Amino acid sequence: MTTPEPEGADLTPSYIEPGQPFDRDTHYIEDRITRDARDGWPVEPGRYRLVAARACPWANRTAIVRRLLGLEAVISLGLPGPTHDRNSWTFDLDPGAVDPVLGIERLQQAYFARFPDYPRGITVPAIVDIPSGRVVTNNYPQITIDFETEWVEYHREGAPDLYPVEHRAEIDEVADLVFHDVNNGVYKCGFAGSQKSYERAYDALFARLDWLEERLATQRFLVGDTITEADIRLFTTLARFDAVYHGHFKCNRNKLSEMPVLWAYARDLFQTPGFGDTIDFEQIKRHYYVTHSDINPSGIVPKGPDARGWLEPSGREALGGRPFGDGTPPGSPLPAERVPAL
């Protein structure tokens, strides 16, 4: 069994290694839930619980895809609170601070149920096997792809094709560029341990944002004329940019709201059912400004910015495009999964 933390141990997480660039650990639990159960985990309605904190951009992707595809009835959703210590995310928003389905206080318990000496970070999103209480996977890039390709039998009527075969190579190429320079790029700025590594990440981030500004000036979505996996992956970073990354992570050449094309693109997606209805700005701000105490030791959470700007018309319809392709928008969120209105 994993040795418990000594009584009185400091459980404050730390993210910056002095003198070093930020290096994300991308070694995840690579098991997959598939129709052929190749890893021992078959597609099975009601068997699995997606644990996805509102605050986390990587988890946010899975919540969006689950909504767009209508998988709410077959994959339940556990929502940890916005802050965590070194030992993991907790279910402090639930009655008794216990997940009502898994019966655990910490996501760590599901990891340790399968790997008693799990040596890496306890991350979200994670999918947990409800009968055994064991984590199945935390491999977030694969989770959304599998929602799109392995759970097809349980997609809602009118579900969009978020990973169309004819565009997969381009989706993967764009998503890879966006991951290195934007999704992870903001973290490489914020968690940089030296001036040199910070400036290198800063320059790569804004060079890529300029590239995206140009690419999206004449097309409504990143790849093809419909929403795809590539748009979802970019959106969750853009949604947090002005509220967190601009100030907290020192990504301050300009705000998202000062880049007219990207700002309109982000608003277009935010106002699309399945996107903005997964965003909780207060939880997002609380996560970053409270959890990252080595960056913000005071723990003070900014009052702004005013999020109502996300509701201003984007005008992106003039570029054409069909957000859901031949499909339809998802219905309203489940009552227990609604976020506060702006």
What labels describe this entry?
342 residues, mainly alpha, four-stranded mixed beta sheet, two-stranded antiparallel sheet, 9 helices, 33% helix
Brief sketch in words of this structure:
With 342 residues, the chain is mainly alpha-helical. Helix content is 33%, strand content 6%.
Question: What's the total helix number?
Answer: 9
Element string (H = helix, E = strand): EHEEEHEEHHHHHHH
Strand-residue fraction? Answer: 5-15%
Helical content stands at: 25-40%
Mean pLDDT across all amino acids: 96
Shape, per Cα inertia axes: globular
Describe the largest sheet.
Answer: 4 strands, mixed
Walk me through this protein's architecture:
InterPro entries: Glutathione-S-Trfase_C-like (IPR010987), Glutathione-S-Trfase_C_sf (IPR036282), Glutathione_S-Trfase (IPR040079), Glutathione_S-Trfase_N (IPR004045), GST_Omega-like_C (IPR047047), GST_Omega/GSH (IPR016639). Residues 301-342 are annotated as: Disordered. The chain starts with 47 loop residues before the first strand and ends in a 51-residue tail after the last helix. It is built from 9 helices and 6 strands, in the order βαβββαββααααααα. The longest helix has 21 residues, at 195-215. β5 and β6 (134-137) form a beta hairpin. A 4-stranded mixed beta sheet has the order 2-1-5-6. A two-stranded antiparallel ribbon has the order 3-4. The chain is mainly α and 342 residues long.
